[in-house]
């Protein structure tokens, strides 16, 4: 890649870096609650429709936001149609420059933005800082990619004709974003749409409007025309209205499987008034498995597995939900894993010692608890001592559940890891293949032949070998799932922008009365 | 002083024992020579060493070995022959057995025994030949409370075992006393990361407090037994925890009059001069009854630190050129000598130039040779230790104890060190002339 480099995360092992974040949080706290209005064209709507709260202290209001509904969605799309004409007319290099300016603005505010995630999503510092860096990475990366894409692709040429292939933006993109990467994911999807020349309407998750608010502000300040980017905070009704709107061309969604599949269904309808087929980028759930072979180094496996399963309370799309462990090392691994889980620090995200923060909301807490109950006697390790205030879930390990248990088949999205003994790596692969999802996967093996065999066989979008399975980096690990986990568009990779453009080929006859022009 | 340094260096060099001392050495050396000349082959062999304890059968061993060798483009004839053997089951069994024996032999070169008790004979032998020992307990990574407790118990057992045996060792005046007073016969090195599963780089105080809980009884017992406890330094991720722990614990009133204790300073760290200033200042003002021993090393986590920093987009915390580390080592040596008598300097290096520099700089201050300790690693610095002892210097050999599984990470680190092209030992083996070996960095 030409000159892309990932934004360095803060060196949190150094006291001054930690102090700078703690002080950013103190400053942020004085300004809470933030206001996040509906932003359409030049208009700022009211910001009193709903609240986002601190999952670790639900009484604390982090932001008040305008509640966009059908009317706001329609108005935003209308403005975006206008904005599209202006924005798409700019050359890619100019759009790239705007995105890079937005990256610089986020960079300036990175401490504050990390602090905001600590409060709004209870994201621990290392992950919050990583999220901000990833957002910056998306802007920089897609800026470069857009310029590259504008060159088109080389085609076969013969005398007397000139063939060119270029990519044109599609139109209005609706971006429907999740809360778990409250800045990076909305930023990635929006930046890709804009980089490719589309206009965008961003509907952030109702749990995290504030980070999206800062993002839209930064993009506007950097030079994205107001009409070309609208912010519609709100709930499902706003998202559904955007998906149904016949003037929307692309829908970029990251979230649950249920909603993702519904979006695919709804967007397949093509009413008479709609002059195009909608393109849907849908990144959905997972049930990510880590395979541990008998020759694995358990000194590495335990910490990497614990972090993959319990970091950010298991609320990353890439998080480990299952470990499939060779029976020769299963007892040893379970004992060490159980002990390592017992010493996890469960607490408020703002503490640098915290490894497992609360989950995002009460519903999530209840869902995780339900699955933990279903695991019943299979629970082999659990941190019972978790804070009362806030949506905390006890980190839990269950072992040897039957293959038809919902605990080992359904996405839980919380701090619950199921360990299953397998006879061999191939047995583990069979289990992975039996699941409907294929997002991330892990393999711990020190045999080159095993690594190659598993890499060739598993359908997962991202396979991590001998390391944790979270933390994909833009440009280094293009991210996204296959099967029912996603459409394979790979955010942060060289194929992603193609989702936001349509290819056009021009073939020109260059002969004039037998005189070749070239 | 440079002239003096050259003289000291040459006389140590002249005192090196002949190569014939270790008949097995030649064989291991062959494997390491292979490794040193080809990065791919080196990676393959070290990966194999690393996986050895996890292999379940000779067949499994052979399959792993050939799996790694298969990735090497240009294989020397002996390796090619090994690949051919792996085609049949009996061939694999033979190959697996030979390879396992090779790894065990290498491990025995670096690890003095499976337990402190099993190591006693070697330790006594070293003492009789003029070298003291610091025992180091190898272990798997500590990820649970139980593992931390077990490590602490092993440390306690090591203190007891060594203390019970030490009185029967013959007198060795050079090893038992310097100008500041008596030196403990028993010396144990401990790792903070093994004493707690809670070490987190972004929350150093938590791990430090948890490790302190297990370190305190060890210090108390060491004081009762008159033993020395040395707190090792590991990667930068645990640096702050370790420093915090040492300074807090040794400052406690209960421990103000003992035991003798020490810390480590890594010269490859860019921040090491500031660390030394901090430690020296603390030693000067702590009012402890014992001078703080500061072991100066180059640092053994260089590859880890550089790769970790590069992956995160950070400036590596270590000097990237070996010469810079070597220069810094000399600067820090002089600073340490300057901090005497609050600090007892222990210079740990296999680099003849670094060692000669320490001896000469100490003499230049008018002090006795015994006022600076010289340390080497078991398996790497044995010949240097013999030469230094022969010259009447005070030598200590860092001796790891543990089983093969636990020792593997250590073993690989040592092998990496021994085969690095620019390492002093590598240069020495290649027959680099003494002028170059002693040249200023």
Describe the structure.
The complex is a heterodimer of chains A (518) and B (441). With 518 residues, chain A is an alpha/beta fold. Chain A has 2 domains: 243 residues, 3-Layer(aba) Sandwich (Aldehyde Dehydrogenase, Chain A, domain 1); 178 residues, Aldehyde Dehydrogenase, Chain A, domain 2 (3-Layer(aba) Sandwich), CATH 3.40.309.10. Helices cover 40% and strands 21% of the residues of chain A. Chain A contains 15 helices and 23 strands. In chain A, helix 1 packs across helix 4, helix 4 crosses helix 5 and helix 10 crosses helix 11. The longest helix of chain A has 26 residues. Chain B has 19 helices and 10 strands. The longest helix of chain B is centred in the N-terminal third of the chain and has 22 residues. Chain B is an alpha/beta fold and 441 residues long. In chain B, helix 12 links the parallel strand 6 and strand 7. In chain B, the strands form 2 sheets. In chain B, strands 1-4-5-6-7-8-9-10 form an 8-stranded parallel barrel, surrounded by 8 helices. Chain B has 2 domains: 71 residues, no CATH class; 326 residues, Alpha-Beta Barrel (TIM Barrel). Chains A and B meet through helix 10 and helix 11 of A and helix 3, helix 4, helix 8 and helix 10 of B.
For the secondary structure, the number of strands of chain A is: 23
Q: Approximately what portion of the residues of chain A adopt beta-strand conformation? A: 15-25%
Strand order of the largest sheet of chain B: 1-4-5-6-7-8-9-10
Question: Span between N and C termini of chain B?
Answer: 15 Å
Entry summary:
The complex is a heterodimer of chains A (518) and B (441). Chain A is built from 15 helices and 23 strands. By secondary structure, chain A is of the alpha/beta class.
Observed structural traits:
heterodimer; A: 518 residues; alpha/beta; Aldehyde Dehydrogenase, Chain A, domain 1; Aldehyde Dehydrogenase, Chain A, domain 2; 5-stranded parallel β-sheet; globular; B: TIM Barrel; 2 domains; 8-stranded parallel barrel; two-stranded antiparallel sheet; 12% strand
């Amino acid at each position: 890649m030409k000159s892309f480099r990932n934004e360095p995360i803060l060196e949190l092992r150094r006291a001054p870096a930690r102090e700078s974040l703690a002080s950013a949080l103190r400053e942020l706290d004085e300004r809470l609650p933030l206001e996040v209005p509906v932003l359409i064209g030049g208009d700022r709507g009211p910001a009193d429709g709903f609240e986002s709260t601190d999952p670790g202290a639900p009484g604390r209001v982090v932001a008040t936001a305008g509640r966009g509904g059908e009317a706001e969605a329609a108005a935003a799309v209308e403005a975006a149609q206008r904005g599209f004409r202006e924005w798409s007319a700019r050359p890619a290099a100019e759009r790239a420059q705007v995105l890079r300016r937005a990256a610089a603005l986020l960079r300036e505010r990175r401490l504050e933005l990390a602090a905001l995630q600590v409060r709004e999503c209870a994201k621990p510092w290392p992950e919050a800082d990583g999220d901000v860096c990833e957002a910056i990475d998306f802007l920089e990366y897609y800026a470069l990619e857009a310029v590259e894409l504008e060159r088109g692709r080389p085609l076969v040429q013969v005398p007397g004709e000139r063939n060119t292939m270029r990519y044109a933006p599609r139109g209005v993109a609706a971006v429907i974003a999740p809360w778990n990467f409250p800045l990076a994911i909305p930023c990635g999807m929006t930046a890709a749409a804009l980089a490719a020349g589309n206009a965008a309407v961003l509907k952030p998750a109702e749990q995290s409007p504030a980070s999206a608010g800062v993002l839209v502000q930064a993009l506007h300040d950097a030079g994205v025309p107001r009409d070309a980017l609208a912010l519609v905070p709100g709930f499902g009704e706003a998202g559904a209205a955007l998906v149904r709107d016949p003037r929307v061309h692309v829908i970029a969604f990251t979230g649950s499987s249920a909603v993702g599949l519904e979006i695919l269904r709804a967007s397949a309808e093509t009413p008479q008034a709609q002059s195009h087929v909608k393109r849907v980028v849908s990144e959905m759930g997972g049930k990510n498995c880590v395979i541990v072979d008998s020759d694995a180094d358990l000194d590495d496996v335990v910490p990497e597995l614990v972090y993959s399963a319990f970091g950010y309370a298991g609320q990353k799309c890439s998080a480990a939900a299952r470990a499939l462990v060779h029976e020769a090392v299963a007892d040893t691994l379970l004992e060490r894993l159980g002990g390592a889980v017992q010493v996890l620090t469960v607490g408020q995200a703002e503490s640098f010692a915290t490894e497992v923060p609360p989950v995002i909301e009460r519903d999530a807490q209840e869902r995780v608890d339900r699955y933990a109950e279903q695991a019943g006697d299979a629970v082999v390790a659990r941190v019972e001592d978790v804070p009362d205030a806030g949506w905390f879930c006890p980190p839990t390990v269950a072992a040897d559940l039957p293959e038809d248990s919902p605990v080992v088949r359904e996405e839980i999205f919380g701090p619950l890891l199921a360990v299953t003994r397998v006879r061999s790596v191939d047995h583990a692969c069979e289990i992975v293949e039996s699941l409907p999802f294929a997002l991330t996967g892990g393999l711990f093996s020190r045999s080159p032949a095993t690594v190659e065999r598993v890499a060739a066989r598993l359908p997962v979008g991202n396979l991590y070998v001998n390391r944790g399975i979270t933390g994909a980096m833009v440009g280094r690990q293009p991210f996204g799932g296959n099967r029912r986990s996603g459409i394979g568009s790979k955010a942060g990779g060289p194929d992603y922008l193609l989702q936001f453009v349509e290819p056009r080929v021009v073939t020109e006859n260059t002969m004039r009365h037998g005189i070749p022009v070239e | 002083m440079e002239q003096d340094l050259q003289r000291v260096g040459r006389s140590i060099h002249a005192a090196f024992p002949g190569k014939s001392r270790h008949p097995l050495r030649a064989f291991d050396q062959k494997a390491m020579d292979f490794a040193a000349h080809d990065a791919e082959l080196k990676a393959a062999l070290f990966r194999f060493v690393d996986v050895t304890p996890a292999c379940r059968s000779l067949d499994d061993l052979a399959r792993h070995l050939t799996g790694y060798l298969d990735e090497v483009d240009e294989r020397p004839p002996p390796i090619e022959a090994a690949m051919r053997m792996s085609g049949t089951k009996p061939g694999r069994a033979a190959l697996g057995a030979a390879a396992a024996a090779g790894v065990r032999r290498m491990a025995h070169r670096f690890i003095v025994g499976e337990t402190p008790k099993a190591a006693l004979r070697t330790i006594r032998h070293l003492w009789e030949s003029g070298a003291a020992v610091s025992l180091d307990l190898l272990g798997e990574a500590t990820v649970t409370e139980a593992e931390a407790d077990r490590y602490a118990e092993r440390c306690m057992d090591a203190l007891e075992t060594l203390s019970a045996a030490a009185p029967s060792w013959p007198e060795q005046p050079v090893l038992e006393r310097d100008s500041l007073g008596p030196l403990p016969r028993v010396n144990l090195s401990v790792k903070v990361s093994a004493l707690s599963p809670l070490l987190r780089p972004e929350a150093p105080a938590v791990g430090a407090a948890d490790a302190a809980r297990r370190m305190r009884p060890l210090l108390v017992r060491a004081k009762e037994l008159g033993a020395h406890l040395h707190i090792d330094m590991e990667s930068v991720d645990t640096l702050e925890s370790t420093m915090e722990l040492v300074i807090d614990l040794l400052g406690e009133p209960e421990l103000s009059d003992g035991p003798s204790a020490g810390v480590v300073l890594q010269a490859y760290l860019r921040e090491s001069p500031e660390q030394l200033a901090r430690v020296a200042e603390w030693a000067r003002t702590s009012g402890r009854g014992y001078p703080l021993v500061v072991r100066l090393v180059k640092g053994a986590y260089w590859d880890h630190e550089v790769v970790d920093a590069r992956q995160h987009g950070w400036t590596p915390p270590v000097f990237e050129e070996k010469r810079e580390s070597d220069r810094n080592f000399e600067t820090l040596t002089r600073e340490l000598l300057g901090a005497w008598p609050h600090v007892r300097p222990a210079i740990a290096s296999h680099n003849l130039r670094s060692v000669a520099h320490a001896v000469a700089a100490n003499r230049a201050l008018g002090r006795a040779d015994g006022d600076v300790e010289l340390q080497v690693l078991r398996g790497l610095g044995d010949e240097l230790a013999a030469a230094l002892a022969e010259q009447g210097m005070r030598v200590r050999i860092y001796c790891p104890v543990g089983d093969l599984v636990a020792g593997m990470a250590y073993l690989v680190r040592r092998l990496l060190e021994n085969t690095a092209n620019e390492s002093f030992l590598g240069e020495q083996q290649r027959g680099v002339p003494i002028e170059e070996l002693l040249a200023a960095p």
